[in-house]
Amino acid sequence: MKDARLASFEILHNILKDNAYSNIAVDKALKEVNARDKSFVSTIVYGVIERKITLDFLINKYLTSKPKLKILIVLYIGTYQLYFMDKVPSSAAINTSVNLAGDVGLGYYKKLINAILRKIDDNRVDLNSLNDISVKYSCPINLINMWNKMYGEEKILSILESINGRPPVFAIPNTLYVECEELQYELLCCGIECEVTDGVVRIDSRFNLSNCKPFNDGLFHIEDLSSYNCALALGAEEGNTVIDICSAPGGKAFTIAERMNNSGIIFAFDLYEHRVELIKQGAKRLGITNIKAEVNDALVFNDKLPKADRILCDVPCSGFGIVRRKPEIRYKELDSIKELPEIQYNILTVSSKYLNDNGRLVYSTCTLNKRENEKVVERFLSDNSNYKLIYDKTVFPSPDGGDGFYYAVIEKSND
Question: Model pTM?
Fold first, then answer.
């Protein structure tokens, strides 16, 4: 099994050099780490990625030139422990980082790394007193400016205060078998700390839920609270025909199926077979039989599909509402997402063609960007007079609540 700090280094190198997704890189690497070290490695990796701007600010004070990436990663790991892991003594944070440098072929730079980390430790900065909110919250200024323009300064601070740190995990009770309080009891019996809130069970995210008996027995699935509420907004009823147009990994489809009491039919689609398989596996574990998961291109009208009473159109998006779960998202160049609204509009347009008269469609994203949210819906309604907006909702992230999210409830009148 790999040393925890060496594993952290390798994961970070994979993310920062090769642009690997943090969650995929972490999940893959944790298979080679002792169980007792998994939480430590996750904390280091996600923490360094989310606090990268802050760490650069602290480290650059003592650099005269840009170092090699490997040196910088060692300094990130050491500095993150010094500032954000109170249970790690300064001496341990520094000494283990120096030793790590030797382990990854940076023996020549051990003295430099030792000197920089000691200066960082000796000259502490009160991060809470910083006026530069980009450094304080480790969020790129271009994203801050976009949010400020769209949502205002007061809301900006609320968002920034919620994008770092360990996010809450929500267990959605499988109401085919249990209610909230019963699920809470089952989890507590497994030693999993949790509480009932907003119709779901909030869990301390340190626990590995995939190995617990209630999970394997199909008593719950994991889904963010905002996503769960979006699924409820669809208002699916027993016997309905439902299309979940971009479904994988299937959380919303599972919630909808349970609300329909496993009746009717839900067509759950994704573009890729391996992601469709995730839906099938999840439905099987939960004992859900009314989901038909298949490959389908959301941008192309499928004339083999029946008309639906309810359609969930959860489109691909920039993901700016879930940066606390996937911290590298915050560093996206805004130019890289400028084509998304057109794709989202086209998916919404194609999806609407499957809807019955008097049916309901929910358009949703997990981003905080009006160009991908309100503007797409406004364009669609302008182009389709037989659809009307019932209501829409922007959810901002909160420390104990759901992620940033947007959904619009749209109904179709008679053609």
Answer: 0.93
